[in-house]
Amino acid sequence: MRVVVTADTHLRRDWPNRRLPAAALRWLARADVILHAGDITQAEHLERFGGFAPVHAVLGNNDRELVGALPETLELTLAGVRIGMIHDSGQARGRSRRLSTRFPDADLVVFGHSHVPVDAPGEGDQRLFNPGSPTERRRMPHRTIGVLDLAEGEILDARIEVVDD
């Protein structure tokens, strides 16, 4: 199963020049499932993602219009891999312990908020994954998106893809 992971897209109708890069759209077109770790901002953008593949999303701190429509955290299983999702995982120091406590049964925890890509081991066998942002690189050198390949309860591949075009 190909899972495309994104966060912090910050798409807004009052910012008409903000768009997803073509490379991000190409990845979304190849997704079996999309995970959005918050800050999509408006329902029409969530619907647009849903035109590519089924979407699972959590509420970000800039998702004021989606309060009540999206959960703050989400736990789901895809291809046998148990996944926890949250937008803001807090500061880097102590993150793995906090996320392990919040999602004790998760094999993978997906988060966003910082715009900093992360693919790192967590507590025990848990893996922590932040796709960065495809629209706002902030202090990072590139705009990014995450790609996961899952099968039979295993994370076969997890990578951060540059989507600068």
Automatic annotation (TrEMBL):
Cofactor names: a divalent metal cation
MF annotations from Gene Ontology: hydrolase activity; metal ion binding
InterPro entries: Calcineurin-like_PHP_lpxH, Metallo-depent_PP-like, Phosphodiesterase_MJ0936/Vps29
EC number(s) recorded for this UniProt protein: 3.1.4.-
Highest taxon of the lineage: Bacteria
SUPFAM superfamilies: Metallo-dependent phosphatases
Keywords: Metal-binding
Keyword match Ubl conjugation: no
Enzyme class: hydrolase
Gene3D superfamilies reported in the protein's UniProt record: 3.60.21.10
Annotated ranges, domain Calcineurin-like phosphoesterase: 1-152
Alphabetized NCBIfam families for the sequence: yfcE
Similarity-based family: Belongs to the metallophosphoesterase superfamily. YfcE family.
PANTHER family the UniProt entry points to: VACUOLAR SORTING PROTEIN VPS29 (PTHR11124)
Name of the protein in question: Phosphoesterase
